[in-house]
Amino acid sequence: MLLVLALILVTMIRQAWPAWSELGASYFFGTEWIPSQGKYGILPLVYGTLVVSLIALVFAVPISIGISLFVTEVAPEWLRRPVVTTVDLLAAVPSVVFGLWAFYNLLPGFQAVFNNIASAVSSIPVLNVVFGPSTGSSFMSAGLILALMITPIITSVTREVFLTVPENDKSGALALGATRWEMIRGVVFPHSFGGMTGAVMLGLGRAMGETVAVALVIGAVPQISLNLFGVGETMPAQIFRQLSEAGSTLRSALIGLGVVLLVLTILVNISARRAVVAVDRRFKGAP
Amino acid sequence: MTTYDHNDDTQTTTDSTAAAISGEAVTMPMQLAPPSAGIDSAERQGNAVEPESLPKVFNLEELQVYYGSHHAVRDVSMAVCANQITAFIGPSGCGKTTVLRCFNRMNDLIAGARVEGLLAYHGVDLYSAEVNPVEVRRRIGMVFQKPNPFPKSIYENVAYGPRIAGIKKKSELDDIVERSLVQAALWEEVKNRLKASALGMSGGQQQRLCIARAVAVSPEVILMDEPCSALDPIATSRIEDLMLELKSEFTIVIVTHNMQQAARVSDVTAFYSTEVNPDGDLRTGLLVEMAPTVDIFSNPSDELTEQYISGRFG
Ligand SMILES: Nc1ncnc2c1ncn2[C@@H]1O[C@H](COP(=O)(O)OP(=O)(O)OP(=O)(O)O)[C@@H](O)[C@H]1O
Ligand SMILES: [Mg+2]
């Protein structure tokens, strides 16, 4: 596996090299990505990717954990199967279908809702910047679609993890007079922390790499804007949009984007793993 | 056969028990008690002979338990008295665990489990609508068959119950943790590694930690379901000693398959058995006889009981 990863990295870096050596620091730290003017600063795309993925996680993680807890700890037996099946079906929807559906059916509604929120907070500092005017396509729209797409993944992994919590530990807590929620906080979560992090990472990886669905609803404007209701662009969406008509520099620059995306994903995973070890130690006591 | 043979398998205890019963059986429980248990025989007898003088903690009348359509236990009527150790014995599947789990409403958690009849705790029907099962479990603690410490530090295991009961002050928690570990005869062994994971302890230590954890919320009753069945004889005898110490403060109900253990620690013994159901192949458990332990083991009034404790049945 590591070998494949190394092979991908090496070949891609070789192809990205022309752009990197030509553009140097202005590639990695430039704040403008306008290929028609020869400007290849990737920060707006990195920004867009991170913002959209974070929005997706903010919505998807609590919802997924909620569904998993409901299915494993709360729901009566007869309700469990149907809920699980529905969520699993959602995972089978191709991302292009999500994108198309959102593009034609959700964006108008999003525009209205976003603008309502924007006018409601228009006099509150900070909020009026973050929740500004919208044309429908936006970071937030992309984030919400992504949330919908990664919820089934995170749900099914966290559900599996919750099912591995020993019944004995749960009874132990309940027998001490814990309520169901106290038992979940005291036993289920600590026991599942590593697995939950893994589930979130899986979802995050999917969100950071998602291409078509995001390309359809984000607006295709690479910019570092604090307005979450405004248009933006992500790395994979830009690669997808530009590759077919790319000249040699642009092609090399796009492949470079691919490398950056891959490295970012790996970094996120490594730091998550570190966090799991540290938190486990805190929860479970020194060995 | 040594006096230290605490093996759970009733078969291995057959010889001595049968001999004791057919011989001068009155002294049998004392003969079987290991010297280290330090049981004051006079006190044991005194307690066992006049249980009526003690306040009743539980009073059961015609208790029925169903799992779905399976009538698992029928017509259990008995009383559990304060500061006594009550032992439940009987063959596998006769409903000892089932009845025990009624006492702290743990079978609420089993889908399809249903209880009928009266189970009163200090005169309050535990299954009436106003009773909050979470509250019940704070007053009536439980120790499980398999030691089940949380995958947390030793300290956090003991502090868990007090924490959810709302105690936040560090100094107060420290006191409770120390007191509980002392009560569970574990303090000396772990006081220097309270932050270590509980899962690194031996099985016997883990079970004593579970007792400390139960004791930490200051319950009135501690229910124990075969607490020693996963432990070696030495760990078993430490837990038995511990039970005898704890009974001055707590009321204890213990399920055991070990006749010698029942004889050694309990004041009162309840013998359960099963009968074939007329409508179906699942068996229904019932309480055959309940009496001071000395009497049950010396002259059981029921033939089934005698057969069981002498190892000819079960
Ligand atoms: N969770 C459950 N769901 C359905 N039936 C159960 C459940 N637990 C126990 N039973 C049934 O209830 C009856 C009594 O079981 P119980 O576990 O109380 O017996 P026991 O006396 O504790 O046996 P053992 O000595 O083997 O522990 C058995 O017939 C058993 O099959
Ligand atoms: Mg049992």
Keywords:
heterodimer, A: 287 residues, mainly alpha, MetI-like fold, two-stranded antiparallel ribbon, 12 helices, 2 strands, 76% helix, 1% strand, globular, B: 314 residues, alpha/beta, Rossmann fold, ten-stranded mixed sheet, 13 helices, 10 strands, disordered N terminus, binds adenosine-5'-triphosphate, binds magnesium ion
Secondary structure layout plus pairing:
The complex is a heterodimer of chains A (287) and B (314).
Chain A: H1 2-23, H2 25-29, E1 33-34, E2 39-40, H3 43-74, H4 77-91, H5 95-120, H6 127-130, H7 139-163, H8 167-175, H9 180-209, H10 212-217, H11 235-242, H12 248-284
Antiparallel strand pairs in A: 1-2
Helix pairs in contact in A: 1-12, 3-4, 3-7, 3-9, 4-7, 7-9, 8-9, 9-12, 11-12
Chain B: H1 10-22, H2 28-32, H3 41-49, E1 56-67, E2 70-81, E3 85-89, H4 96-103, E4 113-121, E5 124-125, H5 133-139, E6 140-143, H6 154-164, H7 170-183, H8 187-190, H9 203-215, E7 221-225, H10 233-246, E8 251-255, H11 259-265, E9 268-276, E10 283-292, H12 293-298, H13 303-309
Parallel strand pairs in B: 2-10, 3-8, 3-9, 6-7, 7-8
Antiparallel strand pairs in B: 1-2, 1-4, 4-5, 9-10
The structure holds adenosine-5'-triphosphate and magnesium ion.
Residues 96-97, 225, 255 of chain B line the site of magnesium ion (MG).
How would you characterize this protein structure?
The complex is a heterodimer of chains A (287) and B (314). Chain A has 287 residues and is mainly alpha-helical. Chain A has a domain at 51-233: Orthogonal Bundle (MetI-like fold), CATH 1.10.3720. Helices cover 76% and strands 1% of the residues of chain A. Chain A contains twelve helices and two strands. Chain A has helices at residues 2-23, 25-29, 43-74, 77-91, 95-120, 127-130, 139-163, 167-175, 180-209, 212-217, 235-242, 248-284; strands at residues 33-34, 39-40. Chain A has a two-stranded antiparallel ribbon. In chain A, strand 1 and strand 2 form a beta hairpin. Chain A is globular. Chain B is an alpha/beta fold. Chain B has one domain: P-loop containing nucleotide triphosphate hydrolases (Rossmann fold, 3-Layer(aba) Sandwich). Chain B has 13 helices and ten strands. Chain B has helices at residues 10-22, 28-32, 41-49, 96-103, 133-139, 154-164, 170-183, 187-190, 203-215, 233-246, 259-265, 293-298, 303-309; strands at 56-67, 70-81, 85-89, 113-121, 124-125, 140-143, 221-225, 251-255, 268-276, 283-292. Residues 1-51 of chain B have low confidence and may be disordered. At the A-B interface, helix 8 and helix 9 of A face helix 5, helix 6 and helix 9 of B. Magnesium ion (MG) binds at residues 96-97, 225, 255 of chain B.
